[in-house]
Amino acid sequence: MNAKLVAVAGPSRGSVVDVGDGDLSVGRAPLNNLCIQDPLVSRQHCLLRWESGDVHINDLDSLNGTFVNGIPVHERRLQEGDEIRIGCSVFLFLKDEGQAHPSPKSAQIEEETLVTGLQGRCVINTALYRHVEKVMEALPPAARIARDLSAVLQVSTVINSMRDTEELRRKLLDLIFDVIPAERGAILLFSDAGREEIASVTCWSRLAGLKQSFEINPLIIERVVREGVPLTCSQEDPRSRDFLASSGVPSLLVAPLVFFGTIIGLIYLDTSSAKERFDEDHVQLLAAIAGIVAAPLENLRRVEWLQNENQRLNAVINIEHNMVGESPRMLEVYQFIARVACTDSTVLVCGESGTGKELVARAIHQNGPRASKPFVAINCASLTETLLGS
After folding, report:
1. What sign does the CA torsion over 97, 100, 103, 107 have?
2. What's the half-sphere exposure (Cβ side, CA atoms, 13 Å) at 252?
3. Whole-number average pLDDT of the chain
4. Of 334, 325, 324, which is closest to residue 366 (Cα–Cα)?
5. What's the CA gap between 71 and 16, in Å, rounded?
């Protein structure tokens, strides 16, 4: 069993690489089995390996990522006809079941050319070839790369200067809108209870500015959480039409926020403009921003939780009362006193005789806005019903 990589774009265009029976390392370093002299390729970029009769591709934590069919991957089983992008190079993965192989020098990649020597014949048709050419022509020019790098640097600066989660999220969406043509955006953070529960959402509209909320298809959230990779949907992709139909937009882009292997939230972007589309470079840029901001967002959220917990505990410690006890149930009583003492509401304290109802009532009075006024305790049991009624 064997497999081949057919280079259809990039520095190795026109060559055929035999994957062989062992591992095939790909990178910029000369020691790799497939050496690609491209500044966008890392020294050790990715690895192709056989496992149970299938070829798997593993990204070796490369700087610019490894893409299969336009999706960044860490590990994936390759299938016949998969398109692999490594830097500026695009390869077509073809699987062979043991027939004779032509030498790479004799292989010519042209429109409607047949790659022979495989089981049957594989036709690289005009549509596929032109699609790859279009992908390569769409690579960002120097000005766009400079703008994207500037945006990433601004994000790095912002996350080190913000001390409020909500303010950080608003600023991030503002910076993202400068480089990605989205009309609406949102940053969702999941609760600690589970990824199915959204703890907080910050929404932004290019036209209306900060918004309270807008609907996001839960199926999109579920898919990104399940797959753990960025998702882009457009009307040209038949697989995305169900998502777009229920979302009411022609194009959307979602990237997960991953903190130590756990998805803590999502960055969601969409546009209703028929002219604007999110391309692969937008996907890479948003994925890079999400990777930068995930840890600071989670750390800020934990700091805020600790601050709130500290304030709550201080409120419990600082309340004035004449009660004795430090058990968990007594701490709940102290928390209740601290919570209701500052309100202007009637409080009903229930309990059997001798449990300390009057002590609780006195503590609520001492810690409330009427602490300077007298506290009067009345034993209602000593009064008759008619007297109480009058």
Report:
1. negative
2. 26
3. 77
4. 334
5. 23
Q: How far is CA 199 from the centre of its chain?
A: 14
Between CA 368 and CA 102 the distance in angstroms is 88
Cα–Cα distance for residue pair 207/184, rounded to 1 Å: 9
pLDDT per position as a tens digit, 313-343? 666 566 666 677 777 888 788 888 888 888 8
Contact status, residue 95 vs residue 77, Cβ threshold 8 Å: no
Residue identified by tokens 């192709």 is 48
pTM of the predicted model as reported, rounded to 2 decimal places: 0.47
* DSSP one-letter string for 291-326: HHHHHHHHHHHHHHHHHHHHHHHHHHHH--------
Please write the tens of the pLDDT for every residue from 349-389.
888 888 888 888 888 888 888 878 888 888 777 788 888 88
Please check whether residue 281 is in contact with residue 140, taking contact to mean a CB–CB distance below 8 angstroms.
yes
pLDDT at 130 over 60: no
Alpha helix (H) residue ranges in the chain: 126-137, 142-161, 165-179, 218-227, 241-247, 280-318, 328-341, 357-366, 385-389
Q: How many Å apart are CA 133 and CA 108, to the nearest integer? A: 16
Q: Please, are residues 160 and 294 in contact by the beta-carbon 8 Å criterion?
A: no
Compute φ and ψ for 140, nearest 5 degrees.
Answer: -65, 140
- Side-chain half-sphere exposure of 122, counting CA atoms within 13 A: 21
Q: Could you give the strand order of the β-sheet that contains 66-68, starting from the edge strand earlier in sequence?
A: 16-18, 2-9, 89-96, 83-86, 66-68, 71-73
